[in-house]
C-alpha cells in the first residue's frame, strides 16, 4: 500500500500528492483533503480515484483546472458513465471525457438551478442515429439526479450522448461531433422546408436517410471527398428530378457554410434517399 505526500489541498475532496517515485498525482475521495495540510500523508485507502500527471500532461492540467471548481460527485458521475458505456455498448471511452463531461454537467446544473433550459436542436436525430448512446445518456441523467438531487432537463440526454459519441473516437473532438450533427440537422431542415413535410421518424426510410446523412456529414467535417463512379452517375442521372432540385439547395447550404463541394455521385445518393422519404407524401 502506497503512501502519498500532500503538496497541495485543492478542496475537501481533491488533493495534489507525490508518490514514492516522486510522481505528481491528483487524488480524489470524499473528505480526502479535509483538515489536511501540505507535507502530511494519505494512503490508497483514503482516495477513491487518482490521476497521474505522467500519463497525459495535457489531460492532467485540464483535469486540475476543472476539479478546482467542481465537487467530487461529478467524478463519480463520469465514472458511472464510463462503466455503463463499457457494460451496455462494449466501448472504452477516451479519458478526456472526465474533463469534458464534468465541465458540461457542472454548467448544466447551474443552468437548471436558475431554471434556464438549453434546448438540443439535434435531439430528434440523435435519438435515431445514436440510439444506444442516447439510452445510456438517459441512465446518466437518472444517476445525476441521484447524486446531485436535481433533475436536469431531458434535452441534456442529447448533449451527454454527444460527449459519449465524441469520447469513443480519440481522433475527433467535440466540435467535430457537433458539426456533424449541425450538418445533419441542417439538411433535414432543408428537405422539410422544400417539400413542406414532416418525416415519419420511426420509418425505415427515415432511419436510412439519417444514417446516410451521418456518414455524409462526417466526410464534410473531415474534408474527405468521395470519388465519382461514372457508371453509377450515367445510370441514375436524369432520375428523381424533383429530389435533385432539393439537393441543389443542400449543395448551396454545404458550400456556403462548410466550404465543401458535393460530388456528382453524392448528389445522386442524396436524391435517392430524399425520394424514398417523400414519394408517399
Automatic annotation (TrEMBL):
Keyword Repeat tagged: yes
GO biological process, one term: regulation of DNA-templated transcription
UniProt xrefs under SUPFAM superfamilies: PTS-regulatory domain, PRD, SacY-like RNA-binding domain
Gene3D superfamilies: CAT RNA-binding domain, PRD domain
Gene Ontology molecular function terms on file: RNA binding
Highest taxon of the lineage: Bacteria
Domain PRD: 69-174, 175-281
Keyword annotations of the record: Repeat
A Pfam family assignment: CAT_RBD
Protein name: BglG family transcriptional antiterminator
